[in-house]
Amino acid sequence: MGSRMAGVMVRKGFNLTVYDAHQPSVQGLVGLGAGAASSPREVAQASNVIITMLPNADIVKEVYRNAETGIFASAQPGSLLIDCSTIDAETPKQLHAVTQELNQQNAEKGLLSNMTFVDAPVSGGVGAAEAGALTFLVGGDEQSYQRAQEVLQHMSKAVFHCGKLPGSGQAVKLANNLALGISMSAISEAMLLGTRLGVDPKVLAAALNSATARCWSSDTYNPYPGVIETAPSSRGYEGGFAVDLMLKDLKLATDAAAAVDLQTPMGNQAQHLYQGLQGEGYGKLDFSSVLKYLDQNSVDKTA
User: Fold this and answer.
1) By CB neighbour count within 10 A (0-12 exposed, 13-18 middle, 19+ buried), where does 263 fall?
2) Interatomic CA distance for residues 50 and 196, integer angstroms
3) Within 13 A of 117's CA, how many CA atoms are on the CB side?
4) What is the pLDDT at residue 300?
5) Distance CA 70, CA 45 (A)
6) Listed residue (79, 289, 92) closest to 172, CA to CA
7) Which bin fits 166, alpha (ψ -120 to 50), beta or left (φ > 0)?
8) Contact by Cβ (8 Å): 116, 147
9) What is the pLDDT of residues 17-61, one digit of tens each?
10) Percentage, residues of the chain above pLDDT 90
11) Among 88, 109, 168, 273, which is most exposed with the fewest C-beta within 10 angstroms?
C-alpha cells in the first residue's frame, strides 16, 4: 500500500525521500524519481512531512521510537507525522504524547516547535491506492487535521476527520473492517447458496445489488470468480487485501470491543472463520477467498 501511495505523490511532482525494509519497493520508487534513504531517521532528516504505512503496532513503535534509526531521533521542529497503518487505538496516543514531549523540550531550548502526529488509516484497497482514491480516517485536533488534509488530499477521494483525539482514526477503521469481514463472509455464503440452487452468479449478483443485500462486498468486490472482472476473485484471489491482514484487523477489533465490554458475536465468528483460512494456507490470498474456502469445505456439491 505504501509504495502505491508514494508512487501517486511522485507522479504528482512531490519531492519524496523513501525508505522500506523491502528494497524492491524502494528501487521502484527511485525509478520514478524519488530519493532513497537508509533508515527512517534519514527520511526524517530530509523531510518535514513524514508518512508511514506499516504492518503492525510493534513495527510502528520501532520505526518512530528507535533511538538510533527512528523518526523521533531526527524529526525536525514543526514536522507533520502521519501514520496510515492499521493498528490499535492506543499506540497513536502514545506517539502523540512523544511529540508533545519533544515540543516541550524544544521550547525549553528556545526553539519554536509545533511537531504534530496524527493517525490516518486508509480504506479502499490496493486499487484505490494506485489510483489516488483512498479514504483517509484522521484522528487529531482540528489544526492537525487541516495540515494533514492538505497532504492526504492528493492520494484520496475523501479525508474524514474522525475525532480530535489521536486514535480516533483507528477506532473508525477497526469498526469499518469489523463490518467488512462480516459482510464479505455473508456475501460469500449468499453467492454460494444462490449458485448451488442453480442461479447464474452474474444474475445473482445483479439481483443482490438491486435488493437489500447490496454492499461493497457485493457490488464492488464480489467474491465469486467472473462476476467482477477487476476483482481479485477473477484473478485467482491474487493481490488485494490479504487474509492475514483481515485476520489481524478482526483481532484488533474484537480486542478493542472486549476492552469496552462490548459483545461482538458476528465479529468473533468472522475472526474464527478467517483463522480457518489462514490455517489452510490462504493467508496471502485476498480476503474474498473466504468464498473459495467455504466452497471447498462444504458438503459434496454433486450430492
Assistant:
1) exposed
2) 50
3) 22
4) 58
5) 11
6) 92
7) beta
8) yes
9) 999 999 999 999 999 999 999 999 999 999 999 999 999 999 999
10) 90
11) 109
Chain-centroid distance, C-alpha 92: 15
Give the pLDDT confidence score for residue 303 in this predicted structure: 45
* Cell, residue 259: 476492552
SS3 for the chain is: CHHHHHHHHHHCCCCCEECCCCHHHHHHHHHHCCEECCCHHHHHHHCCEEEECCCCHHHHHHHHHCCCCCHHHCCCCCCEEEECCCCCCHHHHHHHHHHHHHHHHHHHCCCCCCCEEEECCEECHHHHHHHCCEEEEEECCHHHHHHHHHHHHHHEEEEEEEECCCCHHHHHHHHHHHHHHHHHHHHHHHHHHHHHCCCCHHHHHHHHCCCCCCCHHHHCCCCCCCCCCCCHHHHCCCCCCEHHHHHHHHHHHHHHHHHCCCCCHHHHHHHHHHHHHHHCCCCCCEHHHHHHHHHHCCCCCCC
* Nine-digit cell string for 224: 465469486
Greatest Cα-to-Cα distance within the chain, rounded to the nearest angstrom: 79
**CA 263, chain centre distance (Å):** 24
Rounded to 5 degrees, what angle do the CA atoms 72, 4, 214 make?
Answer: 115
| Angstrom distance (rounded) from CA 238 to CA 230 | 11
This prediction's pTM: 0.91
Q: pLDDT digits over 56-77, tens only?
A: 999 999 999 999 999 999 998 8
Which of 227, 203, 245, 230 is closest to 291 using CA atoms?
A: 227
Burial class (CB in 10 A: 0-12, 13-18, 19+), 58: exposed
CA distances 212 to 180, 206, 219, Å, are: 16, 12, 12
Active site positions, annotated: 173
Go through the chain and tell me how many residues it has: 303
And the C-alpha cell for 94? Answer: 502514545
